[in-house]
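Researcher: We're teaching a course module on how sequence relates to structure. For the next exercise, students receive a sequence and then see the predicted structure as tokens, so they can try to spot secondary structure elements on their own. Here is the exercise chain.
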Amino acid sequence: MTDEQEVELTRLARSKRTSVRLAQRARIVLLAAQGLQNKDIAEQLGVGRVQVARWRARYLESGLQGIERDLPRGAPPVKVDVAKLVELTTQSTPEAATHWSTRKMAAVLEISPSTVMRHWQANGLKPHLVRGFKVSRDPKFVEKLEDIVGLYMSPPEHALVLCCDEKSQVQALDRTQPGLPMKKGRARTMTHDYKRNGTTTLFAALNVLDGTVIGQCQQRHTHAEWLKFLRKIDRETPKGKTLHLIADNYATHKHPAVQGWLAKHPRFNMHFTPTSASWLNMVERFFRDITVNRLRRGVFTSVPELISAIDEYVAHHNIKPKPFIWTKSAADILQKVIRANARLSSKQNATLH
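Model: And here is the predicted structure for the students to work with:
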């Protein structure tokens, strides 16, 4: 060892600015230069003999640079064939399963599940999720779409636009055992099984302008109940306003008795959504909200108790109503439907061939 090397190693060993690891390595080399054996150096510095031998060899091989660089730790990183991972995920399924899991994919590619998850996230892949869809085959889809979206985007003056529908078979469910309330460190508990105490049907009309809801619970949902609800709408809306009602193609909405009643009440104008396009009716959003916020985790011992809870929710909603704002134009929706039909057609043709 030259004097310059000894001075540099001594400086590193005594410096308070250098890392503890580098200072220890410098001391190992200095003690080795004094003629001490590996076991003596290890005992004096409180390290292992293998570690001493390693850094002595690194210094002999590369000098100061040899002890400044850390040795690679652990096993070398596994090279992942990302293209194969993506191909398997998107174009195949595992044996006896409908979709890949991280563990199944990891077993096939001989990598860790966390590595699979990391590459799935990087490529936007979520095999555990599936999205439902339904493309309308209504021959008058475009005409009905433009009619309803036009009412949302440019409602007529001196008129009300009401989105109407029924939420049928709302069940009054009571749990078989009482649950425990939520507390710190524990979620609220509820039994998985329940007792059925009857059903009701919620008729609702959502005012597109201000978000208020006209609601009525009835035992059934035939044309007679629909007529009863139309009369309620007639009573609870300003007489001088023209009414544009958006509804689906349910047979009760087009019953001859209903048609006769509508003919006698010309301020009512019906607009029907295309088949398989309930998403065009904004009252479905209200149905989702009442289901999530009041019904799904509710406990009802009778139908009257259920109806009371629904009426209370509607009344509370109407205190500070918030309208749902429609933002998609008919042209944008139509282009999306065209693209979906094109993809479905190409998929069907590929399957046939």
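Model: If you want an answer key for the exercise: The beta strands are 159-175, 194-207, 213-218, 242-247, 268-272. The domain at 3-68 is CATH 1.10.10 (Arc Repressor Mutant, subunit A).
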